[in-house]
Structures are given as structure tokens and as C-alpha cells.
Amino acid sequence: MPEPATALARYRRMAAMRAFDEACLEALRRKAIHGELHVGLGQEAIGAGMAEALRPEDAVVSTHRNHFHALAKGVDRRALLAEICEREAGLCRGRGGHMHPFDPETNFSATGIVGASLPVALGYAHAFRMRGEDAVAVGVTGDGGSHTGGFHEAMVMAGAARLPMVVLVENNALAISVNFEDVSPTNTISERASAYAAKGLRVDGTDVDAVAEGFAEAMGHARAGKGPVILEATCHRFRGHFEGDPEGYRSREERQRLREEFDPIALYGARLADAGLAEPALQEAIEAEEKAAMKEILQEVLALPMPEASGALLYRFVEEAPA
Amino acid sequence: MNAVDRPNDRLAMPLPATIAEAIALEMERDEAILCIGEDIGRAGGVFGATRGLQERFGKNRVMDAPIAEMGFAGMGVGLAQAGMRPLIEIMFVDFIGVCLEQMYNAAAKIPYMSGGRQRMPMVFKTAGGCIGSAAQHSQCLWGLFAHLPGFKVVAPCSPYDHKGLMAAALRSDDPVVFIEHKALLLRKGRDFRHHPDVPDEAYTLPIGKASTVREGSDVTLATLSATVEHALAAAEMVTEDGISVEVIDLRSVVPLDTSTVAESAGRTGRLLVVDEDYLSFGLSAELSMRVLEKLGFSALQQVERLAVPDVPIPAALTLERAVVPGPEMIADTLRKMAKGA
Questions:
Q1: How confident is the model at residue B8 (pLDDT cuts 50, 70, 90)?
Q2: CATH class of the domain whose range is A4-304
Q3: Between chains, do B74 and A127 touch, taking CB under 8 Å as contact?
Q4: Closest residue to A316, CB basis, from B60, B77, B112
Q5: Given phi > 0 = left and psi -120 to 50 = alpha, else beta, which region is A8?
Q6: Which fold has domain B211-339?
Q7: Among A233, A257, B29, B298, whose Cα sits 20 to 30 Å from the Cα of B277?
């Protein structure tokens, strides 16, 4: 068990992340998001577990399911929510949307293409090494992304040059509908690390303490110049691949069981209560505070103007940026 | 105009050496520039266009990559996001199929997707064009890159333009696809019909500005890359037929300098667009249409186009000559156009 203050901070981070994605779901219900939405409910422990070991100078390149990683990296949640809600005041002026947030100030970016995050993270890692900085590049992907050519190519290059890169694999065992065990040549993803002269770590991604410890170890290893790390965090996706996914590949009962057995917030809450660190009433209060904060932010965001249609062609090239 | 008569030691220099010089000058003035690609370091590039750079700037800035184009193209995106200015070499443009994802979904779109907050200063340097290497090593593909929003697409011809446009590409904050032509990379300065001489110092040329390389009054011929040389040869051939051809080197596909072409075509009344890339949905139709939109649909007497007729490039020389526009094919078209007057 970590220090009480650390434990409570982890709990609050998870609550804040869940509240964020619940606000996204509410925005979707209010038709403020007109495209695909991929929420991370059930995977809060991974985002929250990353936050402590990330430094401002580190880079994170995330996936289509990127909200928690963005929050962990310190991206402003109001600007992020405004982007997800397609507003001109959003992080990317409403041009990116929820799959494509880019924040040069915090070195955070993402891609909607599965597996494509890792080569980009490799570039950050090479830049850090060249400039003699001790920053680390984190590329996030999932079990699906671990099967792409980009995963292999990025690991070959990172391993050969011992670059400061951590590949965080959120293994929720489902690539949309395809079961991990049906397509993976290995039982785990972390065991592939030895093929790339990388360190392999595997943690329970529903346990925020385990993630925080494993992520800190991975970042320490990479930062010390010992080469790349594949950190596999097993987890469960509570909702569909996207909002509206009919989920014909699993039963309602199965989904219910996952929520009951693997909710990272409930699991951590029970542990905090057992250790006498936070009674259920305090936990509920934390969750209520985070929920209220997001509710207020959502209200403000929904009042913001949409981008003007006349600006649809701006920002393709440098000379098109308004003066 | 005969290059051989002009005393200039530049004339003995292979085109790739001029390109390497342009890159070296930019690397000297900006430490953020680095080069990544296959065989660009120890070997100095398969055509020699990065020769000497690794000895000069070290392995970190001139990096031999494994055959992992998806990996190092995406690496370029990450480097650019981290504040560097990478030049990524894809040896032959035909190989972009394995890394197009990082090019068109990341490099080309991120400036827009980020609302202009993330710049993407990177150059994809690659070699295209026909030298008898058949279907998988002969394409141009600039029309493909031009079709995908977000790239600037440059394909120079003369040594002078190669040096100035490479410098401009490396100083650009937008992603630039810089397509060299393999047949030109095998030439020395003196082999070029126009602008073979190159100043020693660094200079830039504006990306998106065409260059009129031969003045004429009967037909306007717009093209780019190695076909400019063929066009100049064809224009020379048809002088015997009394046909005066104005040849415009477009130099870039994005931006496309419609104004220069329209101004010329408006004067000559006839436009021929010649393209070594595929015919359909490509540069030839796009440029013709833009010129007509600019001048009005009745402004020209004739608009013709000549390009690879939607077929993979064949291996046999007889077949290759039948589909890739060369001097004779261009001259024939010019004569037909003049007769049609």
C-alpha cells in the first residue's frame, strides 16, 4: 500500500477520469459529438497509474481511446472536452475531434490508426537521445496494435539503438471483436520483449498500484538509458469498442460480470477501506466532487461556439493560418 | 543555351552531388535537420544524393535505417513533433505503399487536425521515374501525393532547381514530398538542357512557382521533372516544322502554378500537358481544368494531354517507349496540334 496521500490521489485520478468519460457520454446524448466516440471506462487504473511517473518533458503518443492518457499527461481537460465536443475553443480548434488531440505544450498526441502511435513515439525517443535529454517517449497501443507491422518496426529500431521508449500495451483482450487468444502467437505481449532486446513487464491493469509501480519501473529503466520497455497492462473494456457498438461478440451477462469483478475504482475503494485509508463515504464524496466538476465544465463547453464554416480550409499549410 | 559551351566545373558534377550539397548547407545552418533512410549513410545513398553527409554530420544526424519504412516514416513525424526537422528518404517512390499510413494519415493531416497548433516540418525525399526498371520501380506518383491534402509536392528538373527547392523544402514548416527522377540522378550538370549551373552558396526557390524554360508562340507545353528535358528536345525537333513551343517547368504539383500556365496558354491558344505519371485522375486533367476555369472554356483553341495511359510500366523497352512520353511522342503530339489549327 502506498502512502495515504498517494493512495487517495490515485483514487481521485481514477474518479476524475471516469467522470471525464461520463461527461463525454453525456455530450454524446446531447448530440454535441456527431462522430465515433471510444471511451475508456474500465481502464481508469492505467491512465491514473501513468500520471505519477510522467514528467512534463516526456512525450505520450496515444490511441483512438486516448482521453485518460491525455489527462495523465496534463492536457487541460476543459480544452480536451471542448475539442471532443467539436468547439472552436477546443484543443485543436475543432479540427481534430476526439481521436486526434494534439497538444505540443504537454508533448501529447494521438492517432486514430491502430498501432500507428509507436513509430511516432520512436521519433520522440530519438530526438531526446540526440539532444542529450533524459526524457522518455511513451507509445500507447492495445493488444490489437501489438500485432501490427508498426509495432515490430518501432521495437526493432528502439531496441537496436536502446532508445528511451516505453510501449504501454493496454491488453483488454479484444480487438473490437477478435479475441486476443485467437490471434496472438504468444500468451502474453510482454514476453515478446526479448526479441527486441527490450525489458518486458506485465501488470494487472485493473490495479492502480500495480500499474503505478510497473510504469515507474518502466520509465526508470528507459530514462536510465537501459533501452525500451514493453509494459503490458491487462484490463477490461466495459463498453463497446465505440458508442453504438452492438457488441454481438459478447453477452450482456459477460459485460455485467466484468463490471462487477474488475471495476478498478471499486477494487481500489475496497482496498482503501480495508486499510482504513478512506471510508466509503469519503470515496463517494471524491467521486461526487469530480462528477460535479465535470458537469460544470461540460455546461461551459456546450455554451462555446462551433467553428465558423468559413474557416474549413484553414490550417492545412503554414500560410493558411489566420494572422 | 548549349551547356557544354559554358565553362563551369559544376557541369562535371553529378546531380546527386548537388543535392547532397544542398542538404549539407542546410544541415550546417540548422542543427535540427537530420536525415534517416536506407543506405543514405555508409553508402551515401543509392544515387549518391547523401554522399559524404554521415562523415560530416555523424550517425545521429545521418542515420542508416533498417528496411522498416513504416517505422522510420513515423519516426520522422515524432521527430518533427519533438522540434526536429527530419528528412526521411524513401529510396524509390514505389515503396511508399508500406509507409503511406504515416505519410498521409499523420504527416499530411496533423497540421490541420491540430488546428495549426502542431507544425510538421519534414521532407520525404524519394526517387521516381522510368529508367527501365519496370512496374515496381518506375512510377512517379506525384499525382497520388497531390490528391491527398496536406503535402507540398515538389519534382524539380534542373540542377539549379534541385538545389534551391531542396533548401526551401528543408526550411518549410509543412511536410514536403520531394520527388527526384532517377534518370536525372544519373546525369551530370552538362547533360541538362537548362539551368545546369549552380551557385556555390545556399539559396532557396519559392515552392509553387513554375519556370518558363523556353519561350514560344504556338503551343504552351507544361510538364515537370525529367519530362522537361524531353519537352525541350521535342520543342527543338518541331522547329523544323515551323512550330514554336513555350515550355513551362511546373517544378511543383502542390502548390500548382496555374497562373503562369494560364498566362502562357492564353497567349498561344494551345495547351499541352505532359505527365510521366498516370493519365487518369492526375496532374494533366487537373491542370487543364484549372487553366480552363481561369481563362474561360472558350479561351483556348486546343487542350491536349499526354501521360502514361493507366497501365503498369512494362519491362520491355519497346513497350516502355509506347507508354512513357518521350521526345518523339511529344513531338508527334505537337505536330498534330499544330495541324489541327
A1: low
A2: alpha beta
A3: no
A4: B112
A5: alpha
A6: Rossmann fold (3.40.50)
A7: B298
Alpha helices by DSSP H, listed for chain A, are 4-29, 44-51, 67-73, 77-84, 117-130, 149-161, 180-183, 208-223, 252-262, 264-274, 280-302
Question: What is the 8-class DSSP label of residue B277?
Answer: E
Q: Is A5 helix (H, G, I), strand (E, B) or coil?
A: helix
C-alpha cell at A183: 490471434
pLDDT bucket at B338, cuts 50 / 70 / 90: confident
Chain A residues with CB-CB distance to B66 below 8 A = 153, 156-157, 160
For range B124-151, the mean pLDDT: 97
Calpha distance B325→B222 (Å, rounded): 13
Residue B341 has pLDDT above 70, yes or no: no
Prediction pTM value: 0.96
**Domain B10-191 and domain B211-339 have a common topology:** yes
Q: Is there a contact between B66 and A130 if contact means CB atoms under 8 Å apart?
A: no
Best interface-test mutation with B: which of A106, A126, A320 has the largest number of B CBs within 10 A?
A: A126
Write down the domain spans for chain B: 10-191, 211-339
What are the chain A neighbours of B118 within 8 Å (beta carbons)? 102, 104, 109
Cβ <8 Å between A120 and B74: yes
CA distance A86 to A34: 9
The arithmetic mean of pLDDT across residues A121-130, rounded, is 98
CB A38 within 8 A of CB A98: yes
Arch. (CATH architecture) of B10-191: 3-Layer(aba) Sandwich (3.40)
d(CA A107, CA A202): 25
CB < 8 Å to B77, chain A: 119-120, 123
Indicate the pLDDT class of residue B3, thresholds 50, 70 and 90: very low
Structure confidence at residue B4 (pLDDT): 46
